[in-house]
Amino acid sequence: MPDLLLELFSEEIPARMQAKAAEDLRRMVTDRLVAEGLVYEGAKAFATPRRLTLTVHGIPARQSDLKQERKGPRVGGAEAAIQGFLKATGLASLDEAKIQRDPKGDFYIALTEKPGKPTVDVLAEILPIIIRTFPWPKQMRWGAASAKSSALTWVRPLHSIVATFGIETEEPEVVQFDLSGVSVGQTTYGHRFLAPDAIQVRRFDDYVAKLQAAKVVLDPERRKEIILADARQLTFAQGFELVEDPALLDEVAGLVEWPVVLMGSFDKEFLSIPDEVIRATIRANQKCFVVRDPKTQKLTNKFIITANIEASDGGTAIIAGNERVIRARLSDAKFFYETDLKTKLEDRLPKFEQIVFHEKLGTQAERIKRIMVLANVMAEIIEPQLEVGRNLSNGSVATYFNNVQRAAQLAKADLLTEVVGEFPELQGLMGKYYALAQGADVSVAAASEDHYKPQGPTDGVPAHPISIAVALADKLDTLFGFWAINEKPTGSKDPYALRRAALGVLRIVLSNNIHLPFVNFSTRFLGELMEKVAPFREGEDSLDQLLSSMPSKVRAEEIKNIVQIFDNPAQQFNAARALKEYHDFIFFMADRLKNYLRERGARHDLVDAVYALGGTFGDDFLMVVRRVEALGKFLDSDDGKNLLAGTKRANNILAIEEKKDKRKFDGAPDAALFKFDEEKALARAIAEVGPEASAAVAKEDFAGAMTAMAKLRPAVDAFFDRVKVNDDDAAVRENRLKLLNEIRAATRAVADFSKIQD
């Protein structure tokens, strides 16, 4: 079957746009082919700095003929309807129509056949449309035609188009179409400097081979392989090691068509700068890789350049030019670093009073004060759980709390330094270096870097108690603050990265096995922030009005009862506002936890089964996770599977009978009405298992709770094998339904089994 070769040759395409552009081209062309009835076998797109290329193979040579049957008006129907039918179907008269017999009457049927077009003609129609509507984030017009708003636009001036179609054994056809004077044919061009002459190509294999000969590596993955292999070999040959950087590798592969790897050097005096500053400087300004000593893992004074040309002097001039620029950039970085060291971090803090964090949430200085308060609360919560006193190597628990406050105070100070101003990605890390240089405790310095973690799904989480406290405080202040001003994430928008902050809190809590009872502190901080943002107005704000606006009356009544502990109307109002937002906040956090667990393979139905229990445990995310894990292991066992089946059967029977009788079968069953030993055995098992499982859950022994649940399995199985639930005696029937309800109640000690899938 024929193949399509399409190349769009232009001036430089920005590296950051290439991968998406290649995928957009593949998607747009193949989607249109399928829409035209042309199903293909495979497609692949490529990008270089000067071309987008697409190959689609296994396309039919022409569209299939399309046969259509259209039902028309009733025989003998209105003349207007008949004429409309003839016009719509293209029939000359009713003699060309068929008559379909139908119990409701006879109808005219039009059978039409639309012949398919040659694929090359279809391509000639769709390719100009795709090129004109291509979704570049930025586009331009050029040349004399650019004066017209209807002129062709492209990311950079488009010079030529290769568009051929045909089978491998024959000369392909050129897909002929007109596109604002851009030539369409079989001509492309090689490397801008090494082989700039025109090249005539026929099909994809021929095209790739000729480009390779003309010093163009078409496939970006192949360019990356060449750069990485040559860089590794070059550094290894000199006893060094390449510091690999996948993101930079992607970028430099998009800057070259014929990668040539070279090595340069800089003065050793610059090695006094932190490695991360050297790397950021060289990476950001010259797109070069840095090199380290494999023995010490410290950077050397070497760097790797990826050139786009085989220079006649072996690259000497290219290396010298890069060395000149890097020397100047490193001189600036060294000056910034040394200047920063002259000012203590705490001396920078007053400047935060003039820097607004958010217009509704105050200055950065106010935010730092909130973080310090929250960090102290976090420290109090986690200190007994992590046995901080036993794990501290530098003093007592009192020292720990002092260091938490110091770390929270200084964590943001490096935002005002010269190096972070130049390289924002080094925030936190530079704070650690400056704190260490100024004599701060190691744990305080480490918290400057660690409190931003985790910044992504693969980033590590803080492990030291001080870093944990400050990291949680930082993220929770962000969440509480934007919750208080109603700047919550929506389905498509999350401008303040609140989902990332929530996931960060969850990962820190779960990785360090911390119970974090949100209800104990979140309403307090939410209330304080809401009072700051929108103070209570006597005579205008009322508790009853606020409660009436809440979506759930039950929750409103619950909140009203809670806030009655306050005599002051302002305190009651703010507490109610905070409790309302707390419910929404916990729901948001729980949703993040569900997503987190599902992404790591946890069954979504088990997460739902645990959360369906409700109650206050739902804001202790460590307990939720442990319960889900224990439940999953239990259900993998035979006891778990069989108990689930029995519980589901009980639930199904109850659901049917409750609907039929329009009531619940609550209350304890009457032992005097038991007729079978299996009923008595089930009642005894429930009486034993229920308290045992509940006691185990209270001790957070979820494995023990599941072991207790397993004792129900034989009694449930025997009951359903021997006992008829819907007995003819109404009293016995009701008693047995109450027994089934006891099964449901007992299993709810660990989860809502009705939510679990078989």
Summarize the structure.
The protein is an alpha+beta fold. It is 51% helix and 12% strand. α17 crosses α21 (569-599).
SSE layout and pairing:
Layout: E1 3-10, H1 15-35, E2 42-48, E3 51-57, E4 66-74, H2 79-89, E5 98-100, E6 107-114, H3 119-132, E7 158-166, E8 173-174, E9 183-185, E10 187-189, E11 198-200, H4 204-213, H5 220-237, E12 241-242, H6 246-253, E13 260-265, H7 275-286, E14 289-292, E15 299-307, H8 316-341, H9 345-348, E16 356-358, E17 362-363, H10 364-386, H11 388-391, H12 397-410, H13 418-422, H14 429-437, H15 442-450, H16 465-484, H17 498-511, H18 522-533, H19 543-548, H20 553-563, H21 569-599, H22 604-611, H23 621-635, H24 638-661, H25 677-698, H26 702-710, H27 712-722, H28 730-747
Parallel strand pairs: 7-9
Antiparallel strand pairs: 1-3, 1-7, 2-3, 4-6, 5-6, 7-8, 10-11, 12-14, 13-15, 14-15, 16-17
Helix pairs in contact: 1-3, 5-6, 7-8, 10-12, 10-16, 12-15, 12-16, 14-15, 15-16, 16-17, 16-18, 17-21, 18-21, 20-21, 22-23, 23-26, 24-27, 24-28, 25-26, 25-27, 25-28
- Helix fraction? 40-55%
Summarize model confidence as the mean pLDDT.
91
Main β sheet profile: 6 strands, mixed
Morphology call: globular
Number of domains: 6
Strand content: 5-15%
The number of helical segments is 28
Extended strand count: 17
Flag low-confidence runs. none
- Structural category is alpha+beta
Radius of gyration: 36 Å
Distance N terminus to C terminus? 47 Å
